[in-house]
Amino acid sequence: MVKNVALIQELNGNISKVVSLYSNMSSNFSTTFHNNRHHKEG
């Protein structure tokens, strides 16, 4: 039982890391995309 709790906590930690990485990646991508579009129009 204690092992399960530790595993679940580790999983939750990994998931939150992945989510934060993914949100950073997507925000960087949208910023880059927006900047590229802006440069082409100008």
UniProtKB/TrEMBL annotation:
Give yes or no: UniProt keyword Nucleus.
Answer: yes
Which Gene Ontology BP terms does the record give? entrainment of circadian clock; positive regulation of circadian rhythm; rhythmic process
Q: Does the keyword Nucleus apply?
A: yes
Ranges where the Protein EARLY FLOWERING domain occurs = 1-39
Name the residues that span the membrane.
none
Compartments where found:
Nucleus
Q: Which GO terms describe its cellular component?
A: nucleus
Q: Which domain of life is it from?
A: Eukaryota
For this UniProt record, give its keywords in alphabetical order, as a comma-separated list. Answer: Biological rhythms, Nucleus
State the similarity comment: Belongs to the EARLY FLOWERING 4 family.
Official protein name in the record: Protein EARLY FLOWERING 4 domain-containing protein
Q: Which organism is it from?
A: Gossypium davidsonii
